[in-house]
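Q: For a teaching session next week I want to show students how multiple molecules come together into a single three-dimensional assembly. I've collected the sequence lines for a complex. Could you give me the predicted structure tokens for the whole thing so I can convert them for display?
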Amino acid sequence: MSAAAIPVAQIKTITMSIYRYDPTLDKKPYMQDIIVEVPTDKDIMVLDALHLAKAQEPSLSYRRSCREGVCGSDGMNINGKNGLACITPLSEVIKRNKITLRPMPGLPVVRDLIVDMKQFYDQLEKVRPYLITKSDSPDIERTQSPEDREQLDGLYECILCGCCSTSCPSFWWNPDKFLGPAALLQSWRFIADTRDEATDERLDDLEDAFSLYRCHGIMNCVSVCPKGLNPTEAISSIRNKLLTRKKG
Amino acid sequence: MLVNEIINAKDLPVMEFDGIIVGGGGAGMRASLQLAESGLNTAVISKVFPTRSHTVSAQGGITCAIQSDDPDDDWRWHMFDTVKGSDYIGDQEAIEYMCSEGPKAVFELEHMGLPFSRTEEGRIYQRPFGGQSKDYGKGGQATRTCAAADRTGHSLLHTLFQANLKAGTNFLNEWFAVDLVLNSDKAVVGVIAFKIETGEIYYIKSKATVLATGGAGRIYSSTTNALINSGDGIGMALRAGMPVQDIEMWQFHPTGIHGAGTLVTEGCRGEGGYLLNKDGERFMERYAPNAKDLASRDVVARSMALEILEGRGCGPNADHIFLRLDHLGPEVVHKRLPGITELSKTFAGVDPAVQPIPVVPTCHYMMGGIPTNINGQVISVEHGEDKIVDGLYAAGEVACVSVHGGNRLGGNSLLDLVVFGRAAGLYIEESMKQGIEVKDASNDDIEKALERLNRLNASTEGDQVSVLKEKMQQNMQTNFGVFRRGDLMEKGIEELAKTREEVNDIFLQDKSATFNTARIEALEMQNLFEVAEATAITANERKESRGAHARDDFTERDDENWLKHSIYYADTKEVSKRDVNYRPKTVQAFQPMVRSY
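A: Of course. Below is the structure for the complete assembly, covering every listed component.
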């Protein structure tokens, strides 16, 4: 969309205060104010506003792909709260014609709004995020009742954007040892799947002081999840499963 | 060696794999899975983390005769529907292969853990989709699209990523492939690629290179496609002297959200939704008396465009159509279509369980692409004869195998991805076993693949990407949309020709090597432009109306002259014809008929 195409009366200017850092050029990060013209007759998303800023400042860097909240590329810190830029309406976050954008906290910054997600992905891999089966597969699909399948609702929809784990103080402190809400949600997604045959091994993997038990129920993960998922509940479900296993 | 230096072939570090796959979407990861599971050293080069690929946006499902909803369903009926949907320029050998191998590929996905929705019997849930029939069009609407709610693409992509982690595939995530490397025999022996984060650049060498780069919907200004859909594989292939086939065939999806372009699945109509004009009329009954709202996509999109053109559009500007779902009740809407509920609220401000969704036909899918055989091997056409390009494969939307012909049926894209990603993998696995000898690329060969990057790095002035892109997108939208006309297309082609030099000489102001998205967008723009130009020239050449290609100046299908594939080469900018395959192996070929729904 081009600002030039909009009649003047339907335009207002806003200030986007954006975290800038290119390690090859800048000694340290700084905040840059970019003034952009946005329409007043319709709402746009924060990502649309970022595109307008980038048309002025082509060096401004951020990740984006689907622009509809399903690919999880554009997680960032919007006015102090993590969210996806593409499904956050500007009207909901703009204050006194200003919006502040920073990279998601707790992970190393690669450049501008782009963080290094390695720790996040490494933790995900630790939970073996794939179906493990030991019995032979049938010639057609395995059967699963609608009720059993329903157990996966609220789990399989995760888009791995990282908003939850990077808003979690426990993950900030121990990003290498605490798995974080996103990975634990995935862990429960497979434990809860009636087709998976590795529940015991999965639970064994979580029985240490850090992997799971560093969750202190702060629930930032729940309040920021752009898909409305509940990692804290998944973590409680794993804890319950571990407890009942001990009793058993 | 960094991407922002002047790069010499002789200093370029080399990485080597048995097989490389460019693109981490559904087709790419199905191919890589096949290779990795067979023990080959396999790498996926993806410009985004794989789960950010556009397969994630597919909603309604994967069409396949798995006989869950209807135990008597038959893959031959699916084949008949697909041939008819293609307006008879889909290759029947390929369609036969896809429809008959499909069930195996779908069950494999379930075994990998794909969380399909379920029937009361515990089998995979299927829903009706457009263009589906029983008994070769004689038995009424079929129910053949396997679904995971309305998040089937997301579920499929994540499942394939998970399976690849399990299989030990090497992922070069956030790496950008620039161009193909060809040896002196014109065999493909790898790609030039760089790591986006650091700018480290390599020649990645391989005896098998699979292009699985997806579509290029961003040549249009209004599209359901992700911002990353820039036709990178098409650009690479055309620059390397390979052809594209049927590239004029672009699908406009009937239901993109008005204004935003985001997709609303055909599954909405499969679940019982329907379209209304401003008079509250179910107008599809007039255009397709039998299938109505579930006619094939080209038919529905044209009907909607006509309603709007004739002044029966909805809203203050009479510029959209309403998709009604509220009569289905909140139970069905929220359970079967939760993703649509979310998207409608976010991008249209309506809850579909209460209000209709404002929709318009929106660019959605590239039926054409790099021609391949059913093993995924890329084909070039020399003096009218097919010739296999050694070392190069293509699968998924970038390829034209061709199962979609002039119009793709809903739910067939996901099936295409897994069936032909798998087929390419199987073929490569087999040919590796037998051993492949290829000549190494010389420094001169590699140098050719570096030209584009070096030119960009040397740029000191010129146009910015954002300006060039907008100009191209407006042009394509205006002159190559749902309805096409010779004089307008010629104007469009002229405009593109004028921009060609500017696109070759894009100005890259930001020369940083670190996660430089401006460099990526410049390289993508050049790829998009290749697709746009190929589309424009070929569309003007095809002087008939067939499938998604509807001309006001040639309104009829012309089987005498155009029951053919179009073939386009970028160096000559010429269009030739190639025979459509009417030789299925196990059934009688379906002959062209009048196509009505």
